[in-house]
């Protein structure tokens, strides 16, 4: 297989994004969150520099790259302490799905705006009773003449308040078999019957979480993305990038926490030497670094396979990357806080909030247990347990 080590172009992109992230940093994001605002300045500047649309086709104003490039952008912003969660949703999931399966009008309407950051799109798949089981989705889409009528509920949907539309996963009846099949619809934010309620979260982030209600939302035929008979293919065209980008988010967060701990361990002196000279401090930090690097290698492999058009191979690798990155992130954050001791829980060092945030990579967009189910069944050929 072709090597997945980074090209010079990738290294240059990493350095450029790191410089942008350093200019904003954790302090910027903390102030935005405290004010209940959104990181609009960082989002706009990243867009102007071409980072938000780096994975989208050049014909529509994008960078012509892939998920490999977009994951670099998110990881480096995260390593600087200011990740943009909506990057996972708007350009990675929605932009990819529209670029691959959208109509000519959908591409022209959405891709340039997603690339330059002037419009964003949220993604709605999770439901209260379905959890990680996409086959239990109850949001239904039925035909009414040439229109579609959507009815259902979604939960834990990020950024709906700022998104111009939400890419909703529903299920429509197959005329040939009578079975329900997944279909994707672009639902405008102000569509009649499309309501949202913010969920009160212990997790504090710039992007809020919402429960959505679709009460007979009427959509024109052109709201359907792609072929209604190819729903699963289109769905996983978005879910695989989501897992890769979640890995990038987690790796960036872990790197940020680790960098704070390393700086502290070099400078903090309790007895004669800096605490980083002691193996009880140094070895766990070294282990955390190794595990983050290993997770990045799997993320790079997943991105390479996806960008090469190997959807099956990318599905396996993307799940593994997301699992590895989630575990590495939680361990890195935990060890970083522990290295600082009491200081790790203070607002001055800004690590305590990451204890909660790091758990997200283990839980969303799919739990680590469901990934283990996938690998044991799909990769190892063991009997299915669910």
General description of the model:
It is a single chain. With 386 residues, this protein is of the alpha/beta class. Helices cover 51% and strands 14% of the residues. It contains ten helices and seven strands. Strands 1, 2, 3, 4, 5, 6 and 7 form a seven-stranded mixed β-sheet that branches. The longest helix is centred in the middle third of the chain and has 37 residues, at 231-267.
Which keywords apply here?
alpha/beta, 51% helix, 10 helices
Based on DSSP secondary structure assignment, what is the total number of beta strands?
Answer: 7
Please indicate the percent range of residues in DSSP E strands (runs of 2 or more).
5-15%
**What's the alpha carbon Rg, rounded to whole Å?**
21 Å
- Main sheet, how many strands, which sense, barrel? 7 strands, mixed
Layout of helices and strands, plus pairs?
Elements: H1 8-34, H2 40-48, H3 67-79, H4 86-101, H5 104-115, E1 121-124, E2 140-144, E3 147-158, E4 165-173, E5 180-188, E6 194-198, E7 209-219, H6 231-267, H7 279-307, H8 311-340, H9 352-363, H10 368-379
Parallel strand pairs: 1-4, 2-4
Antiparallel strand pairs: 2-3, 3-7, 4-5, 6-7
